[in-house]
Design brief:
Enzyme class: isomerase
Protein name: Alanine racemase
Shape: elongated
Strand content: 15-25%
Organism: Campylobacter cuniculorum DSM 23162 = LMG 24588
InterPro entries: Ala_racemase, Ala_racemase/Decarboxylase_C, Ala_racemase_C, Ala_racemase_N, Ala_racemase_pyridoxalP-BS, PLP-binding_barrel
CATH architecture of the largest domain: Alpha-Beta Barrel
Helix content: 25-40%
Number of domains: 2
CATH superfamily of the largest domain: Alanine racemase
Pfam family, one: Ala_racemase_C
Largest sheet: 8 strands, parallel, barrel
Structural class: alpha/beta
Strand order of the largest sheet: 2-3-4-5-6-7-8-9
CATH topology of the largest domain: TIM Barrel
Length: 330
């Protein structure tokens, strides 16, 4: 059976390095959405808690309920209000038209649109939104934004920071409460010398060893041999015979395919495994073929390699890994 191995020491190392950079674990909101970016939220949660993480963000209420026993604060980022929100959680308010759909006195963080034009309220609408929050009382505890290009060296990052600073000032004028503010994501954190004193940082992929070269990869994907055979000169393997042997070659089929969340390799080009060996022919739904490399092989221990081959981003490679693939901590 295919297998995901999670390196505990690497994960702990990353969290500690990020906490040092941010100014302490109390400054972190670790993002565990989409099964902790495919790594396995429930298996990593106790490790994060033991390190000192107290605040996380997730996609949905379902994810929040799965992790509620591990963390003091959980922010739900992509919630559609239904009127029965749970007092244990904090909910993102992504659109002012949804205010009256929330259960009264629900804890919320207000999303500010600072130029990404995806979710959130614009600065010019902030006064109106605050008035609406008084009419339909919700417990406003914080505000946040998201940088569209924090990993690109252009001016947009600074423009968004300036807009969010203005939003923070407007909010503080409206209340004596101490709000929780957060705008920095993983790329933004490593772009600046110091995190603002009045902000927390939402750390996503950096936890798992990406976005900064000094961090360590946590996840390795393994496959196990289903069968082996001698592929003779001029024989082909798999659908469409996309690979034809030029010499006799001992090959094997391994138990991982596109149904397990891998992007489908169509046999064109050279998609390589962690040891540099190439996948031979087209990937099948539940398997792929390559040179016989033994009972267990590492498919990848750095998703960057597969992301480059498929002209996509690391996020897509990782989050697609099927939750049914067993995950173990090593």
């Amino acid at each position: 059976m295919s297998l995901i191995k999670l390196d505990k020491k690497s994960y702990e190392f990353n969290l500690n390095q990020i906490a040092i950079k941010a100014g302490g674990f109390e400054k972190l909101i670790c993002v565990f959405k989409d099964n902790a970016y495919g790594h396995g939220a429930k298996i990593l949660a106790p490790i994060a808690k033991a390190c000192g993480v107290k605040f996380i963000a997730v996609k949905s209420e379902k994810e929040a309920f799965e992790l509620k026993n591990f963390f003091e604060n959980i922010l739900i980022l992509s919630h559609r209000p239904h009127g029965d929100e749970n007092a244990c959680f904090i909910y993102a308010l992504n659109d002012s038209s949804l205010i009256t759909r929330f259960k009264k006195h629900t804890r919320i963080h207000l999303k500010i649109d600072t130029n990404m034009h995806r979710n959130g309220v614009c600065l010019e609408d902030l006064d109106f939104v605050l008035k609406e929050l008084k009419k339909h009382p919700l417990k406003l505890e914080g505000a946040f934004t998201h940088f569209a290009r924090a990993d690109e060296m252009d001016a947009s990052f600074f423009i968004q920071r300036k807009k969010f600073q203005r939003a923070k000032e407007l909010l503080q004028k409206q209340s004596d409460l101490k709000f929780i503010f957060h705008s920095f994501n993983s790329p933004a954190l490593f772009r600046v010398a110091k995190l603002p004193d009045d902000e927390l940082c939402r750390v996503g992929l950096a936890q798992f060893g990406y976005t900064n070269e000094n961090l360590k990869k946590v996840l390795s994907l393994y496959a196990h041999r289903l069968s082996s055979r001698m592929l003779k000169n001029s024989q082909s393997v798999g659908y469409g015979g996309a690979y034809t042997a030029e010499n006799d070659l001992k090959i094997a089929t391994y138990d991982l395919g596109y149904a397990d969340g891998l992007l489908r390799f169509n046999g064109k080009g050279e998609l390589r495994l962690a040891n540099g060996k190439a996948i031979l022919g087209k990937m099948s739904m539940d398997s792929f073929s390559c040179e016989d490399l033994g009972e267990e092989i590492c498919v990848f221990d750095d998703a960057e390699l597969w992301a480059r081959f498929f002209d996509t981003i690391v996020y897509e490679i990782l989050v697609k890994l099927h939750p049914n693939i067993p995950r173990i901590v090593i």
